[in-house]
Specification:
Elements lengths: L2 H16 L8 H12 L10 H4 L5 H6 L8 H17 L3 H16 L9 H26 L7 H22 L6 H22 L3
Helix pairs in contact: 1-5, 2-5, 5-6, 5-7, 6-7, 7-8, 7-9, 8-9
Length: 202
């Protein structure tokens, strides 16, 4: 893997995840990112509706003599970006699986350079958990609604808070990004507190 490629991918990861630009892209752009990263070898093992809709590249990939991504740092960054982009297109299950994969590379001690990945992956998992339930609530409202399920919200917010705890656990190992991550965790915690107050959850 060339150094230029690694720097480019690291920069794109910073842009998408650290600066939170993924929150401002539309589904078409997110799908373009997914297609780009999913085409890199070795191919992702996690499936999703968006990935299934892409032209198969397994034959072309098998002919390659050299992998595009040849170390854990690059694979972890790809998994992180695929997780973020899948959430943007509303495919929450796949998003969660990619984010878990990204974090696992660091939890298994495989990362040498990108030691910020696990902290950001857990933060994104917390966002994913909340966004997924918000989406289900909106869908339910369109179908006629019903009362707000406070118990379910309490479980979702508790799970998200636990993810944020894990994010902070890893933030100290990413000196260059820890302040940004800590700030984002703090803001999301404030939002969780506000949501609990609005729902009467103590």
């Amino acid at each position: 893997m060339s150094l230029c490629f690694m720097v480019q991918r690291q920069y794109e990861a910073d842009e998408l995840v650290v600066w939170n630009t993924h929150a401002r892209i539309d589904a078409a752009i997110a799908k373009a990112h997914i297609a780009e990263y999913a085409a890199l070898t070795p191919l992702p093992t996690i499936s999703s509706p968006t990935l299934s809709s892409l032209p198969t590249s397994s034959t072309e990939a098998s002919k390659k003599e050299r992998l595009d991504l040849d170390n854990a740092d690059e694979l972890a960054v790809r998994a992180l970006i695929l997780g973020v982009c899948h959430r943007t297109v509303g495919e929450y299950e796949a998003a969660h699986r990619f984010l878990e994969e990204a974090a696992k590379y660091q939890e298994d001690g495989k990362l040498k350079v990108n030691t910020w990945v696990a902290g950001l992956a857990y933060f994104e998992m917390a966002v994913d958990e909340i966004k997924e339930y918000e989406a289900s609530e909106k869908a339910k409202a369109k179908e006629g609604g019903g009362s707000v399920d406070t118990k379910r919200w309490e479980k979702v917010l508790k799970g998200a808070s636990a993810r944020l705890d894990r994010a902070l656990h890893f933030s100290g190992s990413a000196i260059d990004l820890s302040s940004r991550l800590d700030s984002r965790v703090s803001m999301l915690r404030d939002e969780i507190v506000a949501k609990k107050a609005a729902l009467g959850i103590h």
